[in-house]
């Protein structure tokens, strides 16, 4: 899905009825640092970006849900108490996931007619799927007169995603809901917390696509879930009940030594990634608050190396892209999101953004017919989340 049509016009072209539809806009997000640790309830530092999915909708008298997208066509289903997923990969599953997530929690009598438009690249690690799920969830709730709080939404959305098969954490939903203009947000889980960290004015983040697609289905999903399982079993083997408990009791060095002595293979590698990445988040927040771009850039590079060598969620295209960014003058870069393809996030000085972008085009994209600058190489503007506009 990638279009810039006005959702209200698209809605009016498809659906008759009185008055203008309501709208909801949900941005994508880029994770700056703290990768593959949200599902272990460790803090992460994402930001909402200035690309979004927008849903225009109107409540219906019955419980039918009818959705259209220029790119993906029209779907319709009856909002029953228990919904069966459609074929894997069908976009209607995000709508069903939203319907299922809020069902039973609130009294919801009305289905919706809705049109969705998006300028957020899909399957790029920018959370288009969580934006879609969040957008439909907010539309269904608002059509029924419900204004749910951030905390309430965070109780239903990550679980809602399980409907489409991902056992992710809550980072994406937190970022797309609670992002603040000009800021990254430090999201803590268990207990849930969000605090805004201003992005210094002379920093710029670029998002560059590896031109390798990371579809969150099938094989990639299994690989993603296996990293989570290995981390959790490593934790149990060492006798801890949570990573935050482990990090409170022992420093990163001590935990690293423990892992090397008592864990093997995937469990060892995943554990090492998680504890060192948690530490990088901590240092990254301090560096951002201090305006220390050099340190933040170094942490990005270290995070990428850890994701590549320990967690093993990178791929050759992402590794080359990160290298290209660094040799084009970036201060640091790393894969962002689940990995296995998708995008890299790149830090550079704002004054050098154009030069770095041109250097990346020259080193990485040159001669690639599929490269489209609009979609594949963008400046990430720290933006407001759906609840903070
Ligand atoms: C996906 C998940 C997130 C998070 C990242 C990796 O985007 O949806 O919850 O786990 O992968 O950091």
Secondary structure layout plus pairing:
Blueprint (H helix, E strand, L loop, with lengths): L6 H8 L7 E12 L11 E15 L4 E6 L3 E6 L13 H11 L9 E7 L9 H16 L6 H12 L9 H8 L4 E6 L4 E6 L4 E7 L8 H20 L5 H7 L2 H11 L2 H26 L2 H17 L6 H12 L4 E4 L7 E7 L3 H13 L7 H4 E3 L10
Helix pairs in contact: 2-3, 2-4, 4-5, 6-9, 8-9, 9-10, 11-12
Bound molecules: alpha-D-galactopyranose.
What does this 3D model show about the protein?
With about 400 residues, the protein is an alpha+beta fold. It has 2 domains: about 5-25 and about 50-180, Ribosomal Protein S5, domain 2; about 205-380, GHMP kinase, C-terminal domain (Alpha-Beta Plaits), CATH 3.30.70.890. It is about 40% helix and about 20% strand. It is built from 13 helices and 11 strands. It has helices spanning about 5-15, 90-100, 130-145, 150-160, 170-180, 220-235, 245-250, 250-260, 265-290, 295-310, 315-325, 355-365, 375; strands at about 20-35, 45-60, 65-70, 75-80, 110-120, 185-190, 195-200, 205-210, 330-335, 345-350, 375-380. Strands 1-2-5-3-4 form a 5-stranded mixed β-sheet, with helices on both faces. Helix 11 (about 315-325) packs across helix 12 (about 355-365). It is globular, with a radius of gyration of 21 Å. The site of alpha-D-galactopyranose (GLA) has 12 residues, from helix 5.
């Amino acid at each position: 899905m990638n279009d810039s049509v006005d959702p209200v016009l698209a809605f009016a072209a498809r659906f008759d009825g009185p008055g203008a539809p309501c709208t909801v806009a949900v941005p994508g997000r880029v994770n700056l640092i703290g990768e593959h640790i949200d599902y272990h309830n460790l803090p992460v530092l994402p930001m909402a970006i200035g690309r979004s999915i927008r849903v225009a909708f109107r409540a219906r008298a019955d419980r039918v849900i009818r959705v259209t997208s220029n790119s993906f066509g029209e779907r319709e289903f009856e909002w029953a108490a228990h919904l069966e997923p459609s074929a894997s990969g069908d976009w209607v599953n995000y709508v069903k996931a939203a319907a299922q997530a809020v069902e039973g929690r609130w009294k919801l009598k009305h289905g919706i007619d809705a049109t969705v438009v998006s300028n957020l690249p899909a399957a790029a690690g920018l959370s288009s799927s969580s934006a879609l799920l969040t957008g439909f969830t907010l539309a269904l709730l608002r059509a029924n007169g419900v204004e749910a709080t951030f905390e309430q939404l965070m109780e239903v959305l990550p679980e809602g995603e399980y409907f489409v098969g991902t056992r992710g954490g809550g980072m994406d939903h937190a970022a797309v809901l609670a992002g603040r203009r000009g800021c990254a947000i430090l999201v803590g889980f268990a207990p849930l917390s969000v605090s805004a960290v201003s992005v210094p004015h002379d920093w710029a983040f670029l998002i560059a696509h590896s031109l390798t697609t990371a579809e969150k289905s099938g094989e990639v999903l299994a690989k993603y879930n296996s990293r989570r399982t290995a981390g959790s079993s490593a934790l149990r083997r060492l006798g801890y009940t949570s990573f935050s408990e482990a990090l409170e009791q022992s420093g990163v060095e001590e935990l690293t030594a423990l892992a090397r002595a008592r864990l093997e293979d995937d469990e060892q590698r995943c554990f090492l990634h998680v504890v060192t990445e948690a530490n990088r988040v901590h240092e990254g927040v301090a560096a951002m608050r201090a305006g220390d771009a050099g340190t933040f850039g170094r942490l990005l590079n270290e995070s990428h190396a850890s994701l590549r060598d320990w967690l093993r969620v990178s791929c050759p295209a992402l590794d080359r892209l990160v290298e290209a960014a660094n040799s084009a003058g970036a201060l640091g870069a790393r894969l962002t999101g689940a990995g296995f393809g998708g995008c890299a996030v790149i830090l550079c000085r704002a004054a050098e953004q154009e030069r770095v972008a041109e250097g990346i085009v020259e080193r990485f994209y040159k001669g690639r017919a599929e490269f489209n600058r609009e979609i594949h190489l963008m400046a990430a503007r720290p933006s407001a989340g759906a609840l903070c506009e």
